């Protein structure tokens, strides 16, 4: 049985082979950390999209393969960001949602998710996350069904009186 | 001359707009959106004026989307990410009835003649705001797409992508370097954009950017149709000599440039936030200013009265320069 770290290591090696650079260190942005953002991957990918489109394309070609192989937060956010950048927001939403389910304590995952929802016309849910992210993270209980609809229902219900 | 509110005299919709807003800071942009020159704009209004504003927009064929309320108040030092706030410094609060009566609040809205353009701008148009003691910022890609949605020329959006790095560059200085010496065309002057006396609402890639000139000409023509006096007033202000420190600190002078020195009778701080207005008092005491090895020298009747030493900063670097548009 492969450990989480072995899985991550395998993915990092494959990522390096494709891109020629190391996967940027991505720590969990806990609320208590008092950090605006711990993730640099989204920024790096955006830069890559404009400065080296061929390399970005390579990532795009590999993401679905990695998604199937590695069920880890890093791969889901990588997919989420790639699809955000190329404006396939539904896919971006689904992949970032997976990252939330894996690591709901990571503020960066929630905020990126909120901005995807803004692009999908899900304004109420987007604003709810942006304005009540701390309450959402602190009181988070995984929904019975792990899909967006259910998460939305649970969150909006818990913040009815906010 | 001053940079206070312009009171429209001819155009009905301009009068109505200024009456609701109680300022003319975005009047030229508003005219260009009503006239279909600019695809979309974002604006700030007092939240309790939203319905009146919406009605006005509807009357002139514009769609409106409200975003969030900006609460302008002093930001304590313990706010997470405070140091990354560059131009707009505000708290974000939801647009709910209970928050519409507070002072210092402004509702952020987007307006356009096209629903599609409006949505594109809105979705990319989140501003960095403080929420629950933390800076909440949008993804970088949204910044670039917002520029495109607002109708900024592609060359200027590309330049923005390259040089909008407050840790590394002084953006307006980079645009200065990107312009052949002496070819500073007044239609490309972005320094008065916060005052309401400008044809452009963005920073061009160069002060002779062809796309900006084309765009500004169209804006100027449509303003002339509505408010010819405003065109005269804008043109006059766009030609004032300027002393620029960085994006949020610059001064306009009533005067002339001779051999790299500004000789002046009056000075105006037009850099936006008053907290950055550090030198108006010194400049008022003088009658000439120039730059020597990045230091700013202020003279009075030829005698030195103040030397502003160049200050190296790791964030928002200041590289002073003098410029005049013609």
List the helices and strands and how they pair.
The complex is a heterodimer of chains A (162) and B (326).
Chain A: H1 4-19, H2 41-51, H3 53-69, H4 73-85, H5 89-102, H6 107-119, H7 123-138, H8 148-158
Chain B: H1 12-21, H2 27-34, E1 40-45, H3 50-59, E2 63-71, E3 91-93, E4 105-112, H4 115-124, E5 129-131, E6 134-136, H5 140-149, H6 154-163, H7 171-177, H8 210-226, H9 228-238, E7 242-246, E8 249-258, E9 261-269, H10 280-285, E10 288-292, E11 295-300, E12 303-308, E13 321-323
Antiparallel strand pairs in B: 1-4, 2-3, 2-4, 5-6, 7-8, 7-13, 8-9, 9-10, 10-11, 11-12
Helix pairs in contact in B: 2-8, 4-5, 8-9
Structure summary:
The complex is a heterodimer of chains A (162) and B (326). By secondary structure, chain A is mainly α.
Can you give a write-up of this model?
- The complex is a heterodimer of chains A (162) and B (326).
- The N and C termini of chain A lie far apart (44 Å).
- With 162 residues, chain A is mostly helical.
- The model of chain A has no long low-confidence stretch (mean pLDDT 94).
- Chain A has helices at 4-19, 41-51, 53-69, 73-85, 89-102, 107-119, 123-138, 148-158.
- Helix content of chain A is 69%, strand content 0%.
- Chain A has a single domain, classed as Serine Threonine Protein Phosphatase 5, Tetratricopeptide repeat (Alpha Horseshoe), CATH 1.25.40.
- In chain A, helix 1 packs antiparallel against helix 3 (53-69) and helix 2 (41-51) crosses helix 4 (73-85).
- The longest helix of chain A has 17 residues, at 53-69.
- Chain B has ten helices and 13 strands.
- Chain B has helices spanning 12-21, 27-34, 50-59, 115-124, 140-149, 154-163, 171-177, 210-226, 228-238, 280-285, and strands spanning 40-45, 63-71, 91-93, 105-112, 129-131, 134-136, 242-246, 249-258, 261-269, 288-292, 295-300, 303-308, 321-323.
- In chain B, the strands form three sheets. Chain B has a seven-stranded antiparallel beta sheet with strand order 12-11-10-9-8-7-13. A four-stranded antiparallel beta sheet of chain B has the order 1-4-2-3, with helices on both faces. A two-stranded antiparallel ribbon of chain B has the order 5-6.
- The model of chain B has no long low-confidence stretch (mean pLDDT 93).
- At the A-B interface, helix 2, helix 6 and helix 7 of A face strand 6 and helix 5 of B.
């Amino acid at each position: 049985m492969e450990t989480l770290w072995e899985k991550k290591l395998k993915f990092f090696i494959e990522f390096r082979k494709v891109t020629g650079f190391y996967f940027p260190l991505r720590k969990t942005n806990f609320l208590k950390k008092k950090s605006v953002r711990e993730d640099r991957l989204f920024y790096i990918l955006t830069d890559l999209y404009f400065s080296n489109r061929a390399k970005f394309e390579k990532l795009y070609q590999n993401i679905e393969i990695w998604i199937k192989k590695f069920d880890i937060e890093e791969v889901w956010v990588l997919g989420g960001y790639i699809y955000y950048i190329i404006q396939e927001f539904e896919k971006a939403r689904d992949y970032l949602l997976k990252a939330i389910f894996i690591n709901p304590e990571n503020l960066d995952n929630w905020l990126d998710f909120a901005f995807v929802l803004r692009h999908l016309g899900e304004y109420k849910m987007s604003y709810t996350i942006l304005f009540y992210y701390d309450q959402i993270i602190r009181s988070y209980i995984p929904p019975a069904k792990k899909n967006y609809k259910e998460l939305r229902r649970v969150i909006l219900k818990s913040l009815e009186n906010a | 001359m001053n940079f206070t509110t312009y009171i429209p005299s001819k155009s009905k919709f301009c009068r109505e707009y200024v009456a609701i807003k109680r300022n003319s800071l975005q009047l030229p942009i508003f005219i260009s959106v009503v006239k279909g020159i600019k695809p979309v704009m974002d604006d700030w209004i007092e939240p309790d004026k939203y319905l009146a504003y919406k009605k006005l927009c509807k009357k002139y064929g514009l769609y409106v989307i409200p975003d969030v309320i900006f609460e302008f108040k002093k930001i304590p030092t313990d706010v997470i990410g405070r140091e990354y706030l560059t131009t707009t410094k505000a708290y974000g609060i939801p647009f709910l009835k209970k928050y519409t009566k507070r002072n210092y609040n402004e509702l952020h809205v987007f307006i356009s003649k096209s629903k599609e353009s409006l949505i594109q701008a809105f979705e990319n148009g989140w501003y960095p705001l403080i929420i629950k003691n933390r800076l909440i910022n949008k993804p970088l890609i949204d910044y670039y797409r917002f520029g495109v949605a607002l109708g900024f020329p592609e060359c200027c959006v590309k330049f923005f992508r390259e040089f909008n790095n407050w840790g590394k560059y002084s953006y307006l200085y980079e645009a200065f370097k990107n312009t052949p010496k002496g070819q500073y065309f007044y239609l490309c002057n972005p320094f008065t954009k916060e005052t309401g006396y400008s044809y452009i609402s963005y920073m061009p890639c160069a002060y002779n950017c062809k796309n900006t000139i084309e765009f500004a000409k169209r804006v100027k023509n449509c303003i002339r149709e509505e408010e010819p006096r405003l065109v005269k007033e804008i043109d006059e202000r766009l030609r004032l000599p300027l002393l620029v420190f960085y994006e949020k600190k610059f001064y306009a002078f009533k005067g002339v440039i001779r051999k790299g020195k500004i000789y002046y009778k009056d000075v105006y701080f037009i850099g936006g936030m008053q907290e950055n207005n550090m030198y108006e008092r010194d400049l008022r005491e003088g009658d000439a200013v120039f730059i020597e090895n990045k230091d700013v020298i202020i003279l009075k009747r030829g005698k030195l009265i103040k030397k502003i030493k160049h200050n190296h900063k790791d964030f928002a670097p200041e590289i002073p320069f003098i410029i005049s548009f013609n």
